[in-house]
Amino acid sequence: MIIQARGAVLPDSVVGELWIEVTSGLISDIQLGVHHQPDTIADGTLIPGFIDIHCHGGGGKYFSDSSPDAISLAIAAHRNSGTTGIVASLVTETIKDLKQQVGQLLPFYNRGEILGIHLEGPYLSHAKCGAHEPSLLIEPTISQIKEILEVGQGSIKMVTIAPELIGAPAAIKYLTANKVVAAIGHTDGDESDAKVATENGATVVTHFLNAMNKVGGAGTIRDFIEQEGRLSIELILDGHHVPISTAQEILNTFGARVVLVSDAMAAAGSVDGDYLIGKLPVIVDDGVARLKSNQKLAGSTLTLAQAFIKAVAECQLTIERAVAITSTNAARALGLSDRGVIEVGKRADILSFNPSTLKITRIN
Asked: What is the average pLDDT value for the chain, to the nearest integer?
């Protein structure tokens, strides 16, 4: 397959007219100029497919659903908008229920329909539990984590842990040793907690500035995260979780570390109305999801395509910087070497972005 385009974002530059050859799902050649007989002509600039490392569902469904058809609909809601790699996130449940949900997702991982599974809970702070059921939050133990990983058979790729919890340092060290990304999040901890977590292998911050102490200053967890260059920072760019002005500051200061995530709940790609997150009632109004009990934000209704457009149109990012925070940085955070850039030998997950119309089209 030959794709002709008027431009593309490559790993080290933005180039003009070029063509890309795709063979068996991989990029086999990239050449500047015009191909005499392309199979597809893109109307915009080629960019790599989006990679979402934190997403709970979409299309009206959750990844925790017991129905394979519902899980497929959630995947499709994001794939149809350009997310070519997705990590299925699960909210806090009992360990028994989490094991069951992981088992239900395992076939999707084995078929390559998801990149893996993210456990956002139950090892979270009660004080910063957000849209997680407080009564189900527990402290981590190695034996318990081992049981869940065994059920996952290699599919669990990330676990969010509040670093101040008893048992957190050992749990983070164990996860890292088993090639699972340990993420700091839903935490009421301070700089010392985050420092210990990072020393034990934590490499990601779950939705920065949400469900953590927001006030900066010496000794705070925010101050540590901002100074610790090893930590990738998740950012939900919907204008609600973080104001656009604050998002711009984060992007300008920590752009090389930022990973845009959707943190999408079921209403992404669907309609307003009543939903659940776990067992907690949620109301989605004008695309904003909030818990009915206290009006706290309960995930987003974003797709990464919408986040990419906001990054360009509202945060004034260049297209290459927007690509980094929606594709390249996510691949690096997960340790994936086969995607996230347009390059020979990589997966041909390719989109076309038209800057004039802000339209994103999936090419392959």
From this structure: 96
Q: How confident is the model at residue 364 (pLDDT cuts 50, 70, 90)?
A: confident
Task: Say yes or no: 88 and 166 in one domain.
Answer: yes
- Same domain assignment for residues 39 and 133: no
Looking at residue 320, its amino acid is E
Mean pLDDT score, 180-184? 98
Helix, strand, coil tally for the chain in percent (to 5)? 30, 30, 40
Report CA-CA distances (Å) from 275 to 105, 163, 187, 299, 363: 21, 30, 25, 11, 33
State whether 29 and 56 are in the same domain: no
- 202 plus 65 within the same structural domain: yes
Give the structural domain span for 15: 2-45+354-362
Report the 10 Å Cβ neighbour count for 94. Answer: 12
Residues forming beta bridges with residue 359, ordered by sequence position = 354
Domain assignment of residue 18, yes or no = yes
Rounded-to-integer distance, Cα 266 and Cα 279, Å: 13
* Contact call for residues 189 and 164 (beta carbons, < 8 A): yes
Q: What is the pLDDT of residue 214?
A: 72
Respond yes or no on whether the N-terminal peptide bond of residue 122 is cis (omega within 30° of 0).
Answer: yes
- The H or E element that residue 258 is part of is strand 258-260
Distance CA 273, CA 186 (A): 26
Total structural domains within the chain: 2
CA distance linking residue 188 with residue 107, whole number of Å: 36
Q: Is the domain of 119 the same as that of 259? A: yes
pLDDT of residue 218: 66
139 and 20 part of one domain: no
| 352 φ/ψ angles, rounded to the nearest 5 degrees | -120, 130
- Does residue 148 sit in the same domain as residue 285? yes
Residue type, 19: W
Contact 185, 162 (CB under 8 A): yes
Q: Tell me: do 40 and 109 sit in the same domain.
A: no
Average pLDDT over residues 324-352: 98
Report the 3 state secondary structure along 257-297.
HEEECCCECCCCCCCCEEEEECCEEEEEECCEEEECCCCCE
Q: Whole-model pTM?
A: 0.97
Residue 148 phi, psi (nearest 5): -65, -45
